Please model this.
Amino acid sequence: MSSSELADARLSALIAHLYDAALDSALWPGMAARTAQALDSTSTVIKLHGEGARVDLLECTDNLNVAERDRAWAEDWHRRDLWVERSVAHGLSRVITDEDLVTPEEQAHSGFYQEWLRHLDIHHMLGAVFPTADGTLGVLGIHRPRSAGAYTGVERSKVALLLPHLQRALRLGQHLSGMSRAHAAALQALDRIDTGVVVVDGRCRVLQTSAMADRLLRENTGLSAVCGHLRAQPPALHDTLSRRVRAAVNTARGHPADSATMLAIPRPGRLPLTVEITPLRPSMPAFGDPGPAALVFIRDPEAPVDQQALRALYGLTRTEAAVAGALAQGRSPEQIADRLGIGLATVRSHLKRILAKTGTHRQAEAVALLARSV
Model:
C-alpha cells in the first residue's frame, strides 16, 4: 500500500470511528490522537464554545493537557483562542489554516502565541469552526510545530472531507445524549414512585420493569412474571388482563379499542393490588423499536410508607412517623397499638401531635395527606 493509500485508509477509518463514537461515548477517548495521526500532526483539540465564554473540551491529545495547577490558565487561553475568534469572522464551516487568519509577525508577537502556543510547541494550525445542534460553536483544531512545515492544500482537502462527518457525528451524539438523559430520568423517576411499572407487548411478554414492579411481581402470586410473561390468577382474571393489554396495544397502533383499563387483583387476607393498563406508542419505529406496547401500573395499597420522608417533611419523631406510616396504610388506632406494642392512649396522643405538625384537623384528612405526600 502506498503512502497516499495508507493516508486515505486512515481518514476512512477515522470517519467510521466518528459515527461509532457518536453511538457509544466510551469510544470518544483517543479520537483526537486518531485525527492528529490521520493529518500528520502532533496535536488535535475538539471543543465547544458556548454562551458566557463557556468552553467544553470534548477531546484533545495528551500533549495539550496541562498540570492541575495550570488548569485555570489553560481555560483562560481556550476562552481567548485567537484562532477561534478569527475563524468565526472568516466564516463558519470553512476550513482554514493559521496563514489565513494571522500574519507570521502578528502571531509571533501575540500573547496567544507567546504565552500559550509556544508552551505547547504549536505553530501551524488547520481546522474549522462550525455550528452544532445545541447552538454552541464546535471547534476542530489540528496543529504541528514550525519544523513540520505549513499545511498544504492536500491536507486542507482531507479536513474538508472530514468536517461534515464530524459535524453530523457531534449532532448525533448530542441528540442521543439528550435522549439518554431523558431515558435515565424516566427510569429514576419510576424507581422513586410507589407504583410498579411494567412494559409488555400484546402477548403480555415483559419488556421492562421498574424496581417496584420487580418486587411486587416476586411477592404476589395473584400477579407475577411467569417465563417472562405477565400473568394474573385465577385464569379468568388473566383472560381479562390479556384482553385489556391487547386493547391498549391496539390503541397504541392507532386503532382505539376497549377503554376499560383498571383491574383489581385479589389477595387472600389482604387488600387487592390495583392495576392500570395504558397504551405505549413506539418512539422510533424505523430503527428497531419493538413497536406498540402497553404500560401496566401496579399499586399496592399496603405498601410501606417512607417514614424517613415523613420525618423530614413534618418534623415527626421516630415513633410519630411509625404511627403516621401505619395510618397512611389505612390501619386503625387499635391495629397500630397492637402492631407497635404500645397502648391505645399513646397512639391517640401521637395522633394529636401528628395532626398539629401536619396542619390537619381530622384523622381522615391526615391520612389523605400522609398517603399522598411520600
Remarks:
- The two ends are 68 Å apart (CA to CA).
- Residues 153-192 form the longest helix (40 residues).
- The mean pLDDT is 89.
- The longest strand covers residues 270-280.
